[in-house]
UniProtKB/TrEMBL annotation:
EC code(s) of this entry: 2.4.1.266
Reaction it catalyzes: an NDP-alpha-D-glucose + (2R)-3-phosphoglycerate = (2R)-2-O-(alpha-D-glucopyranosyl)-3-phospho-glycerate + a ribonucleoside 5'-diphosphate + H(+); (2R)-3-phosphoglycerate + UDP-alpha-D-glucose = (2R)-2-O-(alpha-D-glucopyranosyl)-3-phospho-glycerate + UDP + H(+)
Highest taxon, organism lineage: Bacteria
Keyword Magnesium in annotation: yes
First-tier enzyme category under EC: transferase
Domain Glycosyltransferase 2-like: 29-138
Name of the protein this chain belongs to: Glucosyl-3-phosphoglycerate synthase
Cofactor(s) annotated in UniProt: Mn(2+); Mg(2+)
Molecular function per GO: glycosyltransferase activity
UniProt keyword annotations, A-Z: Glycosyltransferase, Magnesium, Transferase
Annotated Gene3D superfamilies: Spore Coat Polysaccharide Biosynthesis Protein SpsA, Chain A
Amino acid sequence: MRVSHIRTARWCDWTLEELLAAKGATRVSLVVPARNEAGTVGDVVGRVRDRLVDTVSLVDEIVVIDSDSTDATYEVAASAGAVVHRAAEIRPDLGAHPGKGEAMWKSLFVATGDLIVFMDADLTDWDTHFVPGLLGPLLTWPEVQLVKGFYERPGEQGPLDGGRVTELVARPLLALHYPRLADVVQPLAGEWAVRRSWFSTLSVPTGYGVDVAALIDTLALHDEKGIAQVDLGTRSHGHQALLDLGAMAVQVAAAILRRTTMDAGVTGDDAGVLLRQFRQGLVPSDRVVPVLERPGAENYL
Ligand SMILES: O=c1ccn([C@@H]2O[C@H](COP(=O)(O)OP(=O)(O)O)[C@@H](O)[C@H]2O)c(=O)[nH]1
Ligand SMILES: O=C(O)[C@@H](COP(=O)(O)O)O[C@H]1O[C@H](CO)[C@@H](O)[C@H](O)[C@H]1O
């Protein structure tokens, strides 16, 4: 049963020449949120700079938002040619929170693009065609506000489908509450692109709920026609431990449920969900998982 139709393309549906012609005076920012990614962020920045900034002018700036790193992420990204900002130092009057979504929200105060392409910093198997692929629909289909990437995920035991949180949390909750998004192949993909004018109106979860929240909010206001997805080929990334993915799952579930009538039950600046996990049998290990959301950045621009 086909429950929805999300317009789907392949990254190679547009040539670079076509995209450059469609781009005209539109500004494009690549934004990379990065927390302790000194091992991979230099490659992400360096290759995009080499292929899409220095050689052709598809990307106008590469902005790395250093999200409270304790390693050399800042220095590595800067020497690879990115404009680097520490999330906590952007608009200090607005406070600072940990998390990927916070880094992406704060990027709106420093990135200058009309179009923003987000890419994770922990990519290991990827290529620079991700960026033109994600820009294709935004540059050529005016009704599209948000473009989601999808890909095959090669694994040691053959291709993996979605990641663990994708398959066990996001997809089941979307099937229950947002069946119109069932066609979205990778709802949590960190590689997506959006019009600044739209993203800056959105409430943004500070943690890992950011990606799915933007998808749901785009559907709510713009219907399926506001969303496109692009096949980017193959992609591999670093993996977190299962217990850490438990915290990601809380944030993804909170972002989805908050958008239904079933609020996750937490509000306010110190909002957090107590997650009790068990290590070595019966040893409880508690953590408070932040599920805070930032109001649309346009309120502060
Ligand atoms: O507090 C955080 C956590 C993650 N990230 C970045 O968000 C992206 C995706 O996060 P992560 O790699 O932790 O997720 P995974 O890919 O392991 O599921 C990466 O570029 C991280 O460096 C971030 O900027 N701040
Ligand atoms: O899909 C998921 O369950 C998680 C974790 O994936 P893995 O089980 O480690 O491959 O990955 C998602 O979230 C990440 C953080 O935002 C993104 O980087 C991935 O693209 C996304 O698939």
